[in-house]
Amino acid sequence: MRRALTPLALAAVAVATALSPAAAASSVTVNCDSGGSQFVCTVGYSGASNATIRWYLNGSALPWLNDTSSTGRISCTGGQGFTVSATVTDANGPATGSASYYCNPGDWP
What we know:
Residues 1-24 form the signal peptide. By secondary structure, the chain is an alpha+beta fold. The chain has one domain (23-102): Immunoglobulins (Immunoglobulin-like), CATH 2.60.40. The chain has one helix at residues 2-19, and strands spanning 28-35, 38-45, 52-57, 60-61, 74-75, 81-90, 93-102. The longest helix is centred in the N-terminal third of the chain and has 18 residues, at 2-19. It is elongated.
């Protein structure tokens, strides 16, 4: 009886492992700087190098930035806050990082 349970137990573990959700792209970090009523953000992440990147500003998609690791300089209204987020998707699924910043009308830091 014991021999019959061992292969069955191993099969159950294999099925459970196969059905467990895979970990998404690990941590995603968004960093921005602002000056001259503009901002620039970069995304950092660990995971597959062939991941896709999608950028959002205050919840609205920025499709022209798809798959770039930096936004380049984007105009913003001095004195107002904004939230930038990036969703990175690799073979294990999506992960999102975001940060809120102040649009600096003055000099770059």
